[in-house]
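Example record used in the benchmark description.
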Amino acid sequence: MAVAMTMTAFAQVVVIGSFNVDHVWTCQTLPHPGETLAGHYLTGPGGKGFNQAIAAARAGARTCFVCALGDDIGGQWARALATADDIDLRDQRSTAATGTAGIYVDGEGRNSIIIGAGANAELSTRFIAGQHDVIAAASVVLAQLESPLDAIHAGLQRARLAGATTILNPAPANAKVTPALLSLVDVLTPNESELSALIAHHVGEHIDEDTIATLDTPHLHALCRQLLPEGSVIVTLGASGCFVSHGEERLRGDTVACYRIGAEPVHAIDTTGAGDAFNGALAAALADDTTAPFSGHVRFASRYAALSTEHSGAAVAMPRLAQVKERFNAL
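Model output (structure tokens):
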């Protein structure tokens, strides 16, 4: 389980990313343009970075979260929540408002999201440089794309130089991922829409995101190899599970270069933070045992993410390690 930080107990996992105050509306169907629907409202903490940091901490890793926050109620909330989960929070103070997100969830748990970056947009390379101590000591550094790309690049570059495993969750799909950023990535974790966008931009092949889960294994593996020749790619496929592709020279303890892992049977009511749950749990598992087969880490992350969908919200839906072990007793 996660433990409080001390001067000598650096984080196993460092997450660089965003914090948002989420405003969530749940209704039977997602609204169409011009349509007004009745639904239920709740608010809670979110942002891809914070969700992933909470997941990593609750999955058992000593965790540090590097972000930018406003000096407002949202920022105060983030600091209190990080303390409650024993997360070492390193926040750049901003005069901008803390980030926000408007989330719409339908009766099947699907969602649409609008983000107001706020302070997240001001995370700087200078601030990242100031976190060299914790980044250099980490086993895994995880980032997403709701923060400035130059800050994410600086963080992953420092992690790579220090020998940490770097994970990039290339979300949201409309973010521009540069070849230079990809060159710093050990493990890439796109969903279908993100993989479709990456392939179109970097490989030049246009594939509808709705068909990715049905692509034959050799084709999907070949696309992943073109995208990240030497690293590992995990494509999260929702109800279809996930697909793993390794470079032939680095199988990370697996016996084959590519394979699929099926989805866990759960009663999903809200998939809002499922991808973040997967990434945080994967980072925690990799940090806990770098010698174990990669497939075991992916299976743990899949189970962790599946369990998160049985609860509403994003960060608040992240399960504790004990809950995952109880639900899936074959961990």
